[in-house]
Amino acid sequence: MRFERREHRSLTLVIATPILAIIAALALSGILIAIAGAPVLEAYWRILKGAYGSRLSTTETLTRATPLMLTGLAAAVAFRARLWNIGAEGQLYIGAIAVAAASSHLLGGLPASIQIPALLVIGALAGMVLLLIPLWLRLRFSVDEVVTTLLLNFVAVLFVSMLIDTVLKDPTAFGWPQSQSVADAAMLPKLLSRSRLHLGLAIAVVLAFLLHVIQSRTVFGMQSHAAGLNPAGAVFAGVPLGRTLVIVACMSGGLAGLAGAVEVMGVKGYVTTDLSPGYGYSGIVVAMLANLNPLGVVLAALFTATMFVGADGMSRAMGIPSYIADVTVALSLLTMLVALFFTQYRIRR
Amino acid sequence: MSAIADIIASAGLWAAVLRIATPLILGTLGALLCERAGVLNLGIEGIMTFGAMIGWLSVYNGADLWTGLMIAALAGGLFGGLHALLTVTLGLSQHVSGLGVTLFASSFSYYVFRLLVPVAGTPPTITPFQPIAIPGLSNLPFLGPAFFSQTPPTYLAIALALLLAYMLFRTPLGLAIRMTGENPHAAEAQGINPMAIRYGAVMTGSALMGMAGAFLTLSAFNSFFPTMVQGRGWICIALVVFASWRPGRALIGALLFALFDGFQLRLQTALGGIVPYQLFLMIPYILSIAALAVMARRARVPQALMQPYRRGER
Description:
- The complex is a heterodimer of chains A (about 350) and B (about 325).
- Helix content of chain A is about 75%, strand content about 0%.
- With about 350 residues, chain A is mainly alpha-helical.
- Chain A has a two-stranded antiparallel ribbon.
- The longest helix of chain A has 30 residues, at about 110-140.
- With about 325 residues, chain B is mostly helical.
- Chain B is built from 13 helices and two strands.
- Chain B has a two-stranded antiparallel ribbon.
- Chain B is globular, with a radius of gyration of 20 Å.
- The interface of A and B includes residues 154, 284, 323 and 337 of A.
């Protein structure tokens, strides 16, 4: 048995790949649910109902999908240029704490129309800076950025933990380590009343479209893709590799920082060290499920949010640990990798 | 300054160094073996988590400690098989596959743990490995309590480092592994099967990672809790680069690293309240990044690392 590269990939195949991967992941997780002694189909039905069964749960799922879209875009942009940014989790936290610090100490008095855009930029800039460190280490010392971005995640969370324990500690939180709240004028407007759904969702979707245009219609989009496919060849063809990677890192780190900013300004209002239940890591899965396509990221983030929100309700009702959502999402990354392989190769005997 | 001198002069610090180093030694050796054959295994963090969970769970359900350790190694080997299937047979991106294995192995660990162990206020515990004093040597002043009163897995880890060094550089099998990591085409021309070598190296290396995790729950602590691996796997990946892919240097690197870690833990107690404790906790991660920056250019990377091997394809 050997593998042979496919000459042509049909559009049907490209669209069917993630769907088949998700079905395979659900089937594999189904085995785990069955082993736990629960009816599998009912469990999945309850997940679906938990995520979309009411107005409240639907808006909750969309709220949960918002940071996942942004971290998914962060991973997708970087991975396309083979910049392995696994540090979205840390960049998210740094973006979040930058926003909390800026609003509570600096910009709190400004009206919403100025403060909100300013804070979004600050959050994105903070995320950028955290990714530029590992990029610099890669370009200057040839250090693999996978490990450095992973390690910086821990540094970032500890840094945030230190700040909310000391200088940024909210004195009114009964000794609980949480940051001072952002000003009321810093809170993102709600998209729907009586829900937590906020402007962040619209921002994420618009950015996804924007990135799609940049990647498919601009010289920079082509250059960043070339840098990923074959760095040496790209240099030979006149692509400024270092500069391209710096811009990609700014976009990727910025998107992850924005995820943190939006989560603080849209949902929480303050920062704690459990602000993100692993949005940064889930973003990697989201990006891969979308095959690094920015528009696909929006849909993949919805799938992931559906699993997380739905599993909470299902878990309470059926006694299956809600970690099953994490398992399914992780499995869907592995099945997607295998599925992608078979869109590129066929089996020959 | 005298506080610092006191810390360094205490046998307790040096005993702690070996304890802290053990999971790092095992994990680094595992990652090193995989990489010597040409496969980066970022599954390490998840495999360590699963090893910690399954080793603990086995003992909690009545297995003896050594059986628990072996079950963790076996489970690690199986996850290694999954990583090898993705990266060796299918030749997929080693970065993404490894992260996938980590995400899957860690979430699967939490799922199994939550399913089988009911939620309780205080986590249930087991009786962990007890220190064994080596007769004679443990009676030496200072050195005895510092180095020769460890739990058995610590001695095992050091022995494995020496064994791996011997195997890699003094046996035909070691030559075949290194050749596969440098140039699988040349290895195949010599009648070596690079696929089989890579499967073997990744599965054995992952077994060591499973044991590294199990050491945490069976010797260093006595219970399992989520996120307990705390990035130790990623630190091991950095240590492999620091060690320039040599087991002896990996042993030294892990010990050096543990020395800093043990030192900062004691400094934290000495300076408690003055300096935020988070600053101390950052040190291991920043140290790893610094070590990478210093060593990355100097280290001799296996030339075929991260390159999938397909027969008859260049």
